[in-house]
Design brief:
The chain is of the alpha/beta class and 185 residues long. It contains 5 helices and 7 strands, in the order αβββαβαβαββα.
Length: 185
């Protein structure tokens, strides 16, 4: 009788341990997702509009366009990030592809100073407009805490698509879908 009771107790304890382990994994995943939603850009949030100048001293408005069908694609980076550097070729290909569409404005935003960003842009032959955030508060409002980021905005500054990290072919297609409404593949 004792071995039977011990077996049932062991089986019950094993079941409870499995249940607790499964619930812990689910809560951990929920926590990661909520933390990501609260700290990183994601579809549906609205970013503030700001006017600034590119590194070439051309005036630009970020987060607002005059044409309701237009889109703004932002590449957020810093000059010391190896993942940002690895993403530049994908951003260049994406920029070339989107440039043929019309109604799309591509802008890169550096988290570093204008001087270090100018050197970086020259070293890596970046041809699209590049600017820096005018202040740290705007960088925080854009949730630019992790880089590289690729963000697609509609004409009112609503995020249609956001990806933190390097881009792969599926990500590139997702950007294209966010901009055009159809797959590029």
């Amino acid at each position: 009788m004792v071995p039977y009771v011990l077996g049932v107790a062991l089986l019950t304890a094993s079941g409870l341990l499995f249940l607790l382990s499964s619930r812990n994994r689910q809560l951990s995943a929920d926590y990661r997702r909520l933390r990501q939603l609260s700290t990183l850009p994601h579809a549906g949030i609205v970013v503030p509009t700001f006017r600034t100048a590119t590194l070439e001293n051309r005036s630009i408005v970020v987060g607002e366009l005059t044409d309701s069908t237009a889109r703004q694609v932002l590449f957020v980076f810093n000059t010391t990030c190896p993942f940002c550097l690895a993403t530049i070729p994908e951003w260049k290909r994406l920029t070339d592809s989107l440039g043929r569409l019309g109604g799309v404005q591509v802008v890169a935003i550096s988290l570093h100073s204008p001087d270090s960003t100018r050197r970086y842009v020259a070293d890596h032959e970046i041809a699209y407009p590049v600017l820096t955030f005018p202040d740290g508060k705007l960088a925080r409002l854009y949730r630019a805490v992790a880089v590289p980021q690729t963000v697609v905005l509609d004409w009112r500054g609503t995020v249609l698509y956001a990806k933190t990290g390097t881009l792969d072919p599926a990500s590139l297609d997702s950007v294209y879908v966010a901009v055009t409404g159809r797959s590029h593949l």
